[in-house]
Design brief:
By secondary structure, the chain is mainly α. The chain has helices at about 5-35, 35-40, 40-60, 65-85, 90-120, 125-155, 155-175, 190-195, 200-220, 220-230, 235-260, 265-285, 290-305, 305-315, 320-350, 355-380.
Amino acid sequence: MPLALLALAIGAFGIGTTEFVIMGVLPQVADTFDVSIPTAGWLVTGYALGVVFGAPLLTVMGTKVSRKKMLILLMGLFVVGNALSAAAPVFGVMLLGRIIASLTHGAFFGIGSVVAADLVAPHKRASAISLMFTGLTIANIVGVPLGTHIGQAAGWRVTFAIVASLGVVGLLGVAGLVPETGRPEGADVRSEFAAFRNVQVWLAMAMTVLGYGGVFAAITYVAPMMTEVADYSAGAVTWLLVLFGVGMFAGNLLGGRFADKALMPMLFVSLGALALVLLLFTATAHDKFSAAVTLTLIGALGFATVPPLQKWVLDQASAAPTLASAANIGAFNLGNALAAWLGGIVIDAGLGYTSPNWVGALLSGTALLLSFLAAFLDRRTPPSHRGAPAPEIRENVPSAQH
């Protein structure tokens, strides 16, 4: 494994920790600033929206410099955002710090995916991407529970100060280990946006929104589901989320390994199985053991889709992959927001805490149908035209010359 992948994984660990640890210390933050829990929830919503808008914005800005320099800049911004959150005197400053940190999220994973893929041979690209995302999955196993414990014991400001320190380590790792390749040849705003003329890029992002949205339809409301339906104690929810993180870790590695061998079959299996498991969760959520097992499987199957989807975007936008890759990271967070909203609607309708699982199954099942469409279009496209801007988007001219 190239050491540069380790540096990227450390950065991913810090980003994953700061994204999710806020959920564990939200009551303490609300008490500190004397705001309600729903108001404090803007620290979660603001972060997600920052990822969606920051991914394309900062990636476009990054076309003017090398990918290594852009990664260093992003980690520096990440450190500033978390340090600002740690020292925030009022709630508005805390929210600003969260948004600053979130702006780096999509661009880091988008640019980092391209860098990781370029560090290895073509047949190992998905595995390399999955190794970078390992940092994000480990964050859910170690970083989030540990950060929550520290925040509850020593104060949430200490948690965010530690996360800022992780950003410094990631920055130094990128600076020392990621090779300098210069500015990508032909990289400019026009060429990056040209990738979106390829309908396959849009299909991949739609699969990301719906597939990962299926996961978050269930996970967003997992605490009331586990306490009210499965009869777990509130304290047990932390450990259930650790199991979910373990599933993410395993699924991410398996997804990368098998996507290098058979990308589309891997997507078919993971999305189909995810939809089925989400359906089953409506029943298994009523039993403690079954609920824990199902939650682990949802994490595994949900994150098994990440390396193949990210590699699919890189392959389809090979002429200018950076912006498309970052936009696909934004699509993950768009899926999170969509799923949380839809899950809230069915709960408010009186359908119960397990009803978001039906929503999740529907979203993931739709993503599976889109993957069939993407595979069908790919078979109709000559190999020499794959990765070019949208040859298949022209009606009845699947092999049009450009």
